[in-house]
Amino acid sequence: MPFLKQMAKHPLRTMALAPSSRALCDAMVFGLNPSDGAIIELGPGTGKVTESLLACGFSQSQLTLFELNPDFYELLKQRFPNADVRLQNATRCETAQHDHVQACVSGLPLLSFSAALQLEILSTAFSKMGAEGVFVQYTYGYRSPVRDGVLAELGLVAQVGRKIWGNLPPARVYRIVKAAI
Q1: How far apart are CA 2 and CA 31, in angstroms?
Q2: 102-119 burial by CB neighbour count: b if 16+ within 10 A, else e?
Q3: Please, is 70 exposed, middle or buried when counting C-beta atoms within 10 Å of its C-beta (0-12, 13-18, 19+)?
Q4: How many CB atoms lie within 10 A of CB 42?
Q5: Which of 93, 96, 106, 179 is most solvent-facing, going by the fewest CB within 10 Å?
Q6: What is the model's pTM?
Q7: Are 67 and 41 in contact (CB under 8 A)?
């Protein structure tokens, strides 16, 4: 219900009809290790991916959550009181206080974003994470959620993951990383 309410209130900001499934959330955090550094989460919504990060052993103090929706922001602050929850745009993710960020995990509807906005978000994220970082993004679409021109300009590649059929609608997880030289 919170997603339908938010979609009615903010149709261009809330693109999901329901929270991500456990299968999708687990696929988003697969391979991330708490000992490898902190996590930035962009567009956490109600915190379903956040729950999977905690189930993997991350502490709330390792997480910085960037959410634009004020209702979701308040919910996240209540649910994860020891996480750094920000009512800020994803383009501000370089302000995360952690020294070593291993990944940005994103629930943003990147396919609906302009190339310029995608470029700004990804360049900011990689400036915070460094060359070893990974940008994890899911999409309901049939192609990479990041435009080819953005990938090329930033020297990134999109690694496609498996389709998560147990999500409504089915989704695919992509890992965006620096291209090998």
Answers
A1: 30
A2: bbbbbbbbbbebeeebbb
A3: exposed
A4: 24
A5: 179
A6: 0.90
A7: no
Q: How far apart are CA 122 and CA 146, in angstroms?
A: 9
User: In 3-state terms, what secondary structure has residue 41?
Assistant: strand
Residues 79-111: tens digit of each pLDDT: 999 999 999 999 999 999 999 999 999 999 999
Cβ atoms of residues 79 and 47 within 8 Å: yes
CB 10 within 8 A of CB 69: yes
Helical packing angle, 22-29 and 48-55, nearest 10°:
60
- Please choose, from the candidates 84, 57, 62, 58, the residue with its C-alpha nearest in 3D space to the C-alpha of residue 73: 84
Q: Which residue shows structure tokens 């070593």?
A: 100
Q: Report the DSSP beta bridge partners of residue 178.
A: 156
